[in-house]
Amino acid sequence: MEIKEGYIEWKEYKTYYRIVNPNGKKIPLCILHGGPGSTHNSYEVFDHVAFDDDRPIIMYDQLGCGLSSLEGEHKTLWRKDVWVEELEELRKQLHLEKLHLMGHSWGGMLAIIYLCDYQPQGIQSVILSSTLSSAALWKQETHRLLKLLPQVYQDAIELGEATQAYDSLEYQEATKQYMHKFVGGPWPKDAPECLTRAKKTGREAYVVAWGESEFAPSGNLRNYDYTSKLNQITCPVLLTSGADDESTPYQNKVMFEQIQSEKKWILFPRSRHMSYVEEHDDYVKELLSFLHDHE
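The structure corresponding to this sequence follows.
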């Protein structure tokens, strides 16, 4: 199992990348992770796909997290144009002239920004996995989901947002309960190691770009709204989401209706935010079918 790891250097920064089956014969798949400020780790569940399908799969830790962490404060860096520049540098330095692009959660937002604002060449198809096209709609839908939690947790979130007491034990516990219900974890002991491995998240990147609250964006992405721009995507699109996902079926329906290129939407019935983990075999089947149709 050949895996190539390294760093691209751009400006004064270094971005960690990981290529599984670098000599695969099919068009590479590049995965953009969530956050902002998460890591590539969980996408290692796709490692076997790279070899089974003879396809290079590229994943990387975006600047500010994981193996691309930076020391000290860098608050002016955490902007969408910086992350797009990083992606373009990755493509350039790894010679990814043609590729399939997959973005999960924030990574899907980044893919949407890239496709709509930059009109890049060589994107064979895009997989938008449990993502969003509007921060305002995300806020609306996550607050609707909060009403499915016990009242004590609803009250804790409401008080935390009203007072901005995001570090209170009550707010943190309520957020954890929400995450378990609609996002992911806790993972069993026999879960793939990449899901339970300790990781260095980019807390500053998350707070500056998104905000302190999962449910009410207040960072520089708070006005993110690309719903009306989705018709500018010209490559085939696969939407994937879970029935119990914080990227709700309604949000995906809104995106699906706006996309004008060839499109498909798969709703995984037993999944939260990470359907590529929770219904992995079915997810891989749908993913490969889509990729093979658009080689």
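The CA atoms of residues 41 and 157 lie 29 Å apart.
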